[in-house]
Amino acid sequence: MKAVTYHKYGAPDVLGIEEVPAPTPGDKDVLIEMHAALVTATDAIFRAGEPLFSRLFTGPRKPKAKTLGGEFAGEVVAVGKDVTRFAVGDQVFGDTGPALGAHAEQVLVSEDGALAVMPAGLEHAQAVAVLDGVLTALPFLRDHARLREGQEILVNGAAGSVGAAAVQLAKHFGARVTGVCSTAKLERVRSLGADDVIDYTEQDFTRAGRTYDVVFDAAGKSSFPRSKRVLNSGGVYLSTAPSPGILLRSLWTRKFGDKRAVIAFTGLRPATDKAEDLRRLTELTEAGRMRPVIDRRYPLEDAAEAHRRVDSGDRQGSVLITTKHAAP
Ligand SMILES: NC(=O)c1ccc[n+]([C@@H]2O[C@H](COP(=O)([O-])OP(=O)(O)OC[C@H]3O[C@@H](n4cnc5c(N)ncnc54)[C@H](OP(=O)(O)O)[C@@H]3O)[C@@H](O)[C@H]2O)c1
Fold first, then answer.
1. ∠ CA 265-46-44 to the nearest 5 degrees?
2. Ligand 1, closest atom to CA 310?
3. Mean of the per-residue pLDDT values for the chain?
4. Whose CA is nearest to atom 19 of ligand 1?
5. 90, 158, 180 from 204: Cα distances, Å
6. Does ligand 1 lie within 6 Å of residue 243's CB atom?
7. What is the pLDDT of residues 275-328, one digit of tens each?
8. Is the CB of 185 under 6 A from ligand 1?
9. In the chain, what are the domains?
10. CA atoms within 13 A on the CB side of 197
11. What is the pTM of this model?
């Protein structure tokens, strides 16, 4: 089968297409013919090997996993002899997790992995786009912030994958949402359901005179010391971006003070938790609470172009790579 591969860190040109052995399902495995997969900011970071911190996951000198990609949608084409929950012909979506490997014609996932039947009525490209950012935003808001109806939340980086999912999920939880993004993305963030928007090129949200129960820095561009002043008493600051500062402050604020700082690594959650979240996402999507927004799609062979689009920062929604099986 064809796979997008890379053997060294760098610009999108390090990506190539190779013929690699097709995976063979073990007794509990599900083999999926990939139709559409996301290219995310995390894929771009893992490709570049920067920031250097990311190499803790991908390998210090060169990438351990040769094929990137996490979230995908496709059709089950084979199952191991002990698989009971999926059958050949099922239309599924999921996440390969730390193993990566979704940017290929076929993807192998354990039946106990992050895999679920796609929401009804969506094409594969839409199903994987609706998944964009959700497996990060949902645990941050539900498990770490315990966001509830009537609370005020600010989402920094509200036009990005994680931020856009957070805006939609926060509205579903009944919160009042302020989204922070650049000028060109204000309309997109409003259309996702944000009650208020702040243009970070014009205004610093930490000086805008409003306070919040939760500040979710989905972009990882602010800091707890600066954001603390806009947190209400008992408020929570969440960050997706690891740094020594946030790691120390998350330990310190667990014991001291009435405002908490939280960093989490949602990609490392057990696959069974992610599978549960996929089923929840299917319900929310079928109820019209979450909707896919596709920026551009590229054939598998043009994966480097897809990475360039992600690197540009211009995208207004999900960037996908698709195979010949995806509906046009
Ligand atoms: N900890 C975890 O478990 C976890 C899991 C997944 C991802 N992540 C990390 O989360 C981060 C975001 O991921 P993503 O997929 O959402 O990335 P993304 O889709 O590229 O979005 C990043 C957003 O950051 C915004 N931004 C850039 N500079 C900003 C600034 N100065 N102030 C406010 N916003 C700014 C951009 O907004 P504009 O487009 O409006 O300029 C962009 O939409 C990445 O660093 C990723 O590695 C962490």
1. 105
2. 20
3. 96
4. 160
5. 47, 14, 9
6. no
7. 999 999 999 999 999 999 999 999 999 999 999 999 999 999 999 999 998 888
8. yes
9. 2-132+292-322 (3.90.180.10), 134-267 (3.40.50.720)
10. 23
11. 0.95
